[in-house]
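Cross-posted from the bioinformatics board.
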Amino acid sequence: MAKQRPSLLLLLSLISLLLSPPPAFSFSDESPTARRILVLVDDLALRSSHSIFFDSLVSRGYQLEFKLADDPSLSLQRYGQFLYDGLVLFAPSVSRFGGSLDQSKVLEFVDAGHDLILAVDSNASDLVRGIATDSGADFDEDPEAVVIDHLSYAVSDADGDHTLIASDNLIKSNVILGDKAIEAPILFRGIGHSVNPANTLVLKALTASPSAYSANPKTKLSSPPSLTGSSISLVSVMQARNNARVLISGSLELFSNRFLRSSVQKAGSKTIYDKSGNEQFVTEAAKWVFHERGHLKAVNVKHNKVGETTEPGIYRINDDLEYSVEIYEWSGKSWEPYVADDVQVQFFMMSPYVLKTMSTNKKGLYSTSFKVPDVYGVFQFKVEYERLGYTSLSLAKQIPVRPFRHNEYERFIPAAFPYYAASFSTMGAFFIFSIVYLYHK
Amino acid sequence: MAKGTNDAKLLIQSLRKAYAATPTSLKIIDLYVVYAVATALIQVAYMAMVGSFPFNSFLSGVLSCVGTAVLAVCLRIQVNKDNKEFKDLPPERAFADFVLCNLVLHLVIMNFLG
């Protein structure tokens, strides 16, 4: 037995070497869910203290790899190819990443279209604060400040300084948070951040109540706090223009087993919920971040003259044409038809001459027909679809439009009838005049 | 003031008397010219209202009216006995020229009408 073990181990390690990197299920356009996820932690005990969250990811088919944040062998890329499709940063106190990772490499990772979940807590280092600022969330500059709420805290027999808050100010989006409403409040303990209101890409998924503020609980307040009320975001989500999704949470404990399993009672309310809304919230938000929901693709753009099937290279003014496109939504496992009633197509040349809402056959096919406007030039069929929580669709197909050929006008133009009449009347008048002139007495 | 209007009235009356003395053939030509010019003016007013879309038709219509008016005026000059310049020109020759020119004009008009 003892003699066989080393050879068995050798065999197993050889097999595991051969099997990495993992085949088939990686991130691609055909299967957009991130599959290989790197989880960076400060302390490997997080693996067990947050096991419910990680197990929910593994059960949905993700391959998680746990590493310490200062592990010297860390790298996201090898020879230009990314080794992972998603990154979970649960390492709030790391001041320098190990290996070849740093803030710009993480930004490069997101810029390449990959997803990120970032959670910090009250000992957040400048490095993770910098990564959050890159994604649009600005944490409170005071390193000692945490979110305190004296009216909306969770009733428990802990500290009594009201830093454990129960929040139910959620973003209203079925795409991000799932179809089922989250009934119980969500437990949160950590730091708050603000989001620039001019930034259209960031959304506040979980906001603090109007009575919250961000300050150091151990000292007296010397001046009014800078972050107060509903401008404090507890959890934010960001969808970049390349459709990479980022979730930033000010509390690492929000994901922990303790909060996921605990009961919650909001101060001032009599209802005690047996289970906090944390599990539902983190599961659904993770589904959205890793593209299991709300990921659209548009294929098969077709246009033709009404009555024909081939796509012409040029249209004439006042032609009737039809335009169709198929839009599918990724359900985590397969492409399902996307059903909505607000997809619009524009016939665009410097400004939209035609803007029509397309009708759907509920199987993902959107189509409409309209008349080419009375202007000639080079137009584009444009579909610009941006909805909260969904990936943005931006399609453009160029098509020229020509005016009438000289033999495509009507034979006798009604607007010119007076001129026809005048010419013929002049001829008649000439005829009558010559008769009268010659034969008058 | 009164003298001004009086003078205008005298002027118009003398014009009328002088005009009444012209031969009938010239009066017929004058009527023809007035008709042609009036038709041209109607066409211009129509174009001002609806725009110049079939511009070639507009041009051919106006040109036919203006052209016949011009040819008729030429005929009148050549046929008028008081005109010393054309004393030796037989009026039949003038009329034949008029007819030929009109034929050419109307040929061009029909082509340009579109």
